[in-house]
Structure to design on (380 residues):
């Protein structure tokens, strides 16, 4: 008897695909060669029309569902939504999840070795955009024999990629599912990203991005960046419910250096844990990709005009307490799709968990997500 739940995809093994054709980038540079690491769940049917692409958010990666070993206790980051009978049902769909270029979980990124120098790319790794990622994902689809995705799905930064797929390759997806996302960042969001980047860049161990050559990492900067980011992912209600003003030791210490409140302890733990598993240059790269995303810019800010070329049906979902990508930003997308006369479904979910709600098994969210995905037609 398997120790994994019946609705789990079980053991999964990451796969690696090398590309030798140069990839032109929006910044004007090109990657001469690169690798993408990805996982698949379920089986591609004979018609090849049941493939679903999962696009990850800022700190995400290819491990979206299942387990890498019998001993692993924590499943992939979107296991709540991917598996037999789940919203993205692997009994029906062939699911592909990858680590984006510039990442730090196996795909070519700043911590990878530059074949031209024999050293880590570090600060020399080119700036990436959402459009660059989508172009690299299209090449992976070609290798996998997927001419058209049944759906491209993502939350947050992943939702931006799903939208960009529908814009860049309108004939290559039938459904676009964008969750807790925005058509571009607000000034406030760009400001949060800049504070996080400055925390990293001003760390004495950053060494202009070439910290690997010094055998160090900008740990303190990464910790602070994660702490700032994590605050924005949670709602005031969820933080209040989880921590309130609870003290760790039931008394005040009147000491600037001590950790007195439970929320302080939680944020420091999150920062410590993150700094041990994420690359600083990747964090800078991912936040810049967020900042640069603005598909309407190609049409003088007219998002509806940008959406005129779409062929996909769209599902847009938002969460009431998400102030990082508020429901109002999702409604901007919906309004532009309607103005462009494109088919769109929209759901605003009452949820106390803030931006992170898209990762959680909230019943109304999962039911709506499942209902939509179940209506996607695929061959037997």
């Amino acid at each position: 008897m398997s120790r994994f739940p019946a609705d789990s995809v079980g053991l999964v093994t990451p796969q690696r695909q090398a590309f030798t054709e140069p990839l032109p980038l929006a910044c004007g540079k090109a990657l001469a060669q690169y690798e993408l690491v990805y996982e698949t769940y379920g089986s591609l049917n004979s018609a090849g029309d049941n493939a679903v692409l999962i696009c990850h958010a800022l700190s995400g990666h290819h491990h979206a569902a299942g387990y890498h070993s019998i001993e692993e206790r924590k499943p992939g980051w979107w296991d709540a939504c991917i598996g037999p009978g789940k919203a993205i049902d692997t009994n029906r769909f062939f699911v592909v999840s990858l680590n984006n270029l510039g990442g730090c979980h196996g795909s070519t990124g700043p911590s990878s070795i530059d074949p031209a120098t024999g050293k880590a790319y570090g600060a020399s790794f080119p700036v990436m955009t959402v459009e660059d990622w989508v172009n690299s994902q299209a090449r992976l689809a070609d290798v996998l024999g997927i001419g058209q995705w049944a759906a491209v799905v993502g939350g947050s930064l992943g939702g931006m990629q799903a939208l960009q797929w529908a814009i860049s390759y309108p004939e290559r997806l039938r459904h676009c599912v964008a969750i807790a996302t925005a058509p571009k960042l607000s000034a406030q969001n760009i400001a949060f990203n800049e504070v996080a980047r400055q925390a990293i860049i001003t760390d004495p161990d950053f060494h202009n991005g070439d910290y690997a050559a010094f055998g160090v990492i900008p740990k303190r900067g990464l910790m602070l960046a994660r702490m700032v980011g994590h605050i924005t992912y949670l709602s005031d209600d969820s933080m209040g419910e989880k921590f309130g003003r609870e003290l760790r030791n039931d008394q005040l210490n009147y000491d600037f250096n001590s950790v007195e409140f439970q929320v302080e302890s939680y944020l420091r733990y999150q920062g410590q844990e993150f700094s041990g598993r994420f690359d600083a240059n990747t964090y800078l790269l991912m936040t810049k990709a967020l900042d640069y995303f603005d598909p309407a810019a190609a049409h003088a800010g007219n998002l509806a005009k940008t959406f005129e070329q779409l062929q996909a049906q769209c599902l847009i979902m938002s969460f009431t307490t998400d102030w990082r990508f508020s429901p109002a930003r999702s409604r901007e997308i919906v309004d532009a799709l309607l103005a462009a006369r494109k088919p769109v479904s929209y759901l605003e979910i009452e949820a106390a968990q803030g931006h992170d709600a898209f990762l959680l098994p909230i019943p109304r969210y999962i039911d709506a997500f499942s209902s939509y995905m179940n209506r996607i037609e695929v061959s037997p």
Remarks:
- The radius of gyration is 21 Å.
- The mean pLDDT is 93.
- The longest strand covers residues 34-41.
- The first helix runs from residue 130 to 143.
